[in-house]
Design a protein that fits this description.
- The structure is a single chain.
- This protein has about 240 residues and is an alpha+beta fold.
- The protein is about 35% helix and about 15% strand.
- It is built from six helices and five strands, in the order H-H-E-H-E-E-H-E-E-H-H.
- The protein has helices at about 1-10, 50-70, 95-110, 140-155, 210-220, 225-235; strands at about 80-85, 115, 130-140, 175-180, 200-205.
- A five-stranded antiparallel beta sheet has the order 2-3-1-5-4.
- Helix 2 (about 50-70) packs across helix 5.
- It is globular, with a radius of gyration of 34 Å.
- It starts with a helix and ends with a helix.
- The model is unreliable at about 230-235 (pLDDT under 50).
Amino acid sequence: MADQKEKQEKKPKPQQQPKQPKQEKKGKPAAEAPEAAPESNEPVEPAPRARLWDTYEQQVRGKLQQQFGFKNPHQIPRLKKIVLNVGMGDASKTPKGLEAAVAELAAITGQHPVVTRAKKAIASFNLREGQPIGTAVTLRGGRMYEFLDRFISIAVPRMRDFRGLPTKSFDGRGNYSLGIKEQMIFPEIDYDKVERIHGMDITFVTSAGRDDTALALLKELGMPFRAETAGAAGAAA
């Protein structure tokens, strides 16, 4: 019996053939990998142009050329950019307040603002070079005209005790600056989420080079200036 066991152990084991893949049953199709959804070749419709931009091109340019007698169309003043600036001197002590101001400015303008930093150190103000002190955003093109349209038609009438915008805020080169005490006048701001009320400075930069032509440009675009001082400001300029 022992000899038979030794012979059986010495016999080489038959080589196992590789397993063949199981054939799928008839009537059931093979499971295929899910194909990616085909990309639509339909062109994406561009956003509609700002209506105030069309108003400037179709109406305002002709009125200004006729009013001031510009012979060259490049002399007609135009709005170059709008700069919104929020200053926060205690931004280093309250970083969450600066983050909230950045988020609010982005909601108002539809463009991500930049954090402004101190250019030099001032010991009397406990200010260090490179320290964040506020946030700002610059609007051009379509976003500029869209913001101006919303600012004139929605935000300005919501100012407290509004009696018209002052006309004495021009810098002598055709640029107009305006200060706002509360950011709550913009409809994009949610009252329940506001942690701190702050103001901002808005600067309208034009290519006029003169205050009288810049005043006429902003008037034609719809800026509600004070009627009683508008004539005096234009004559002084």
